[in-house]
Write a structure and sequence with these properties.
By secondary structure, this protein is an alpha+beta fold. It has one domain. It contains three helices and five strands.
């Protein structure tokens, strides 16, 4: 899932401070597939992919790998921005 999502263009980009000092990138990607867990023990609504507009949050840290970390998935841009700010610290500077 991640490589395909990481190849899509960002609809919002920003910077956040790792450990309060090191600037790192964050981006939000709009996609039309909400990927499921693929786990047969999960309920069908969680296990299977769904065709729905959603927003993937991806971010960097100073570590070399992996290139992008999974910051979660939201069903609206506003929710995705809130989730990114909550996960990455009190200040995310959105540049577009």
């Amino acid at each position: 899932m991640a490589p395909l999502v990481d190849e899509l263009p960002s609809i919002r980009r920003g910077r956040w401070l790792y450990a309060g000092v090191t600037p790192c990138d964050v981006r939000i990607i709009r996609h039309d597939t909400l990927y499921g867990s693929g786990d047969t023990e999960d309920p069908p609504e969680l296990a299977g992919n769904r065709a729905v507009e959603c927003y993937y949050i991806r971010y960097h840290t100073p570590a070399v790998t992996p290139p992008w970390h999974d910051g979660g998935i939201a069903l609206s841009l506003r929710e995705a921005m809130f989730m990114a700010e909550r996960k990455l610290g009190p200040v995310v500077h959105w540049v577009d």
